[in-house]
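Input chain follows. Return structure tokens only.
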Amino acid sequence: MKIVRLAGLALVWVVATTVSAQSYKVLVNFNLNQGPSLPDEPGIIAQSRGGYLVTTASDDITGSANGSAFRVDTSGALKVLHEFDRTDGSLPIGGLTLGRDGEFYGTALFGGSGSLNYGTIFSMTPDGIVKTLHEFPSAAEGLPQAPPIQSLYGDFYGTTAGPTGDPGSEANQGTIYKITSDGDFTSLHTFTGPDGANPSAPLVQATNFWFYGVAEHGGPSFVGTIFRVNSSGDFEVLFNFDYSHGGYPVSLIQADDGNFYGMTYLAGAYNYGVVFKMDPTNKVTVLHSFTGGSDGAGPVGNLIQATDGYLYGTTNSGGESGWGVLFRISTSGDFHVLHTFEKSTGGYPIALIQHTDGFLYGDTNSFGSAGGGVFYRYDLGLSPFVTFLDCYGRVGETVQILGDGFTSESKAYFNGVQADIIEVEPTYMRVLVPEGATSGPITVTTTKGTLKSNKVFVIRP
């Protein structure tokens, strides 16, 4: 009986591996000796108005080795957009945020002009022209990791990690800031240790308009906190991680059920990290504790919710080969490994995004055929959709929609009410919120059929 059972398990594993191999495709092999390489966490990937996937890498041997920004199209064509030269930043590990002006916003961990060397906030045009918006004057105020996010009102909010050192220290453990697209900078909060330290993940603006985030260190157990802050700088710790619920949080999102979900790098039942849920009362529940085995270990990068309602993420190690896994988990905790990373096709995965073509795209920090990591695609079998940059709006305000197959004959509807289209390109359109619209999905008629948005647009009074 044991022999039959083992054979059956082996057959299942072979079938699963074959399915994963068919679903997983390397689009770019980053070369350690030429071009962008070694994308690092959090490494957020943005979808541009033109349908490109745009992000950053921590190294670029062809330039000054201070990092680069690049784009990849859905067929795998790579183009370097900008090579950093340290005066405009060095080690842009955070990735990029698409702004409503069509430009990208990001940070560099180090660099700056003159004697400054504590990081920058920058904007970048789609063609790669970088403008420094702010240079941090000291390590205590700087060392930004995640890119800033754009708020409902158009300004940007982000964090700095502060200097490295004792996570239990009560000084200089990172900050939260606000900045405009013109570079008008305001510090909102300085972490002291007990309230958190070294926030490294992007903030998220929730449906109640507060900004939520995680600090990787600090708190009573020194293993991180969940916090929120408003535009005036009012700050509140919502949860202190305590090992059993995970430790060293690396991501946080708000899903379509209103709850928050995230990952921690370590701790939990087996000390290899967890996927957690926080409800509106700030109660935290562990959905999955990584074992360090076939299900992975040490989740990093960003957790996302795809159009099928599942959450998707990656671990930096573990899995059958030890180089990490791509996983899916339901909001109730049903967990499944989709892909085990191998050295030959990329190891140590970093970031994820679902493109409006329905596929997942991501990158890895190492290996692949050229040694510098890979950019890959994973087929979930999901249909194309549309998305938008403004989650909330009033009647008469402008909303920008991303997708594909848009033409002059396309029509856009807000929960069934047709909108006026101001501007349209094959992968981008700008529309007005119509009179009589109610909160609900946006649909657009395209050459690919009628596509529905992956989230709800909320009509503001």
